[in-house]
Amino acid sequence: MTRNETLRAALDSGTLFTAMAAHNPLAAKLAEEAGFGGIWGSGFELSASYAVPDANILSMGTHLEMIRAISSTVSIPVIADIDTGFGNAVNVHYIVPQYEAAGASAIVMEDKTFPKDTSLRAAGRQELVRIEEFQGKIAAAAASRRDPNFVVIARVEALIAGLGQEEAIKRGLAYEDAGADAILIHSKQKTPDEILAFVKAWPGKVPLVLVPTAYPQLTEADIAALGKVGVVIYGNHAIRAAVGAMRQVFAQIRRDGGIANVDATLPTVKEIIALQGDAHMRKIEAEYLK
To answer: How confident is the model at residue 63 (pLDDT cuts 50, 70, 90)?
Structure first.
């Protein structure tokens, strides 16, 4: 099966699909190595890797090139986080084929205004667009894809914006009617109660997508048992792991005044060269360098 077919089949089968965030091809390669089903091409992680806020500061082209690079490195489906679609429905109609051509198997688009504010920021500016406007953006995304197996996921931010369950359900159903293949419901509550209430009340036919960043107590077994969730996304763990590890190593080098003690705790240079695909390059050299 193609990567698009793999993701579509997982959604149709009801089997929980797992996606790990990545902000570059190396992180994506490590996620595939660890056994995740797919990659979440995270706008938050990419912004963090550039040390700028997750507020549409980076251009669509920068994010698109990350998706292209990741897709060329891994063999598993890539779900592209396109924030609010980088404009209105016309913009969406033009950019979805570009993401598809770059190797993405799905896009996730959220119903906030442009420029957005990151969802989990304390006292963030969480402003939503009109339901009808976002329906148009979803319809434009669905209509512009070339492969019918390419997945369009609508992200509902009503709970993030404090608008409550009724508004969240209303928006989710409206986006399903507009052609969304799945609904991502997001929450910043520190317990899963709000999300569990939404899942229980969800009357739609399309599967849900969860991002349990704020409520890590909810395990994959718990999520699968809910019966309505098709995808779980680990939305920012690659960049957080990278930041934590680098801070620890850098601090130890400064404390020690050298690398003698820290060096033994790090992956070897040989391991990094292997991750770079050195064996494949050597094979090409042997076959083609004359």
So the answer is: very high
How many Cβ atoms sit within 10 Å of the Cβ of residue 118? 19
Active site residues: 54
Half-sphere exposure of 271 (CA within 13 A, CB side): 6
Q: How far is residue 105's CA from residue 41's CA, in Å, rounded to a whole number?
A: 11
Q: What angle do CA 143, 100, 183 make, to 5 degrees?
A: 60
Pairwise CA distance, residues 89 & 87, whole Å: 7
For 89, other C-beta atoms within 10 Å of its C-beta total 19
* pLDDT tens for each residue of 131-169: 999 999 999 999 999 999 999 999 999 999 999 999 999
Three-class secondary structure of residue 54 per DSSP: coil
CB atoms within 10 A of CB 131: 16
**Tokens at residue 47, please?**
């912004």
CA distance 65 to 245: 26
pTM of the model: 0.95
Give the model confidence (pLDDT) of 223-257 as tens digits: 999 999 999 999 999 999 999 999 999 999 999 99
- Select from 181, 184, 9, 3 the least CA-distant residue to 78: 3
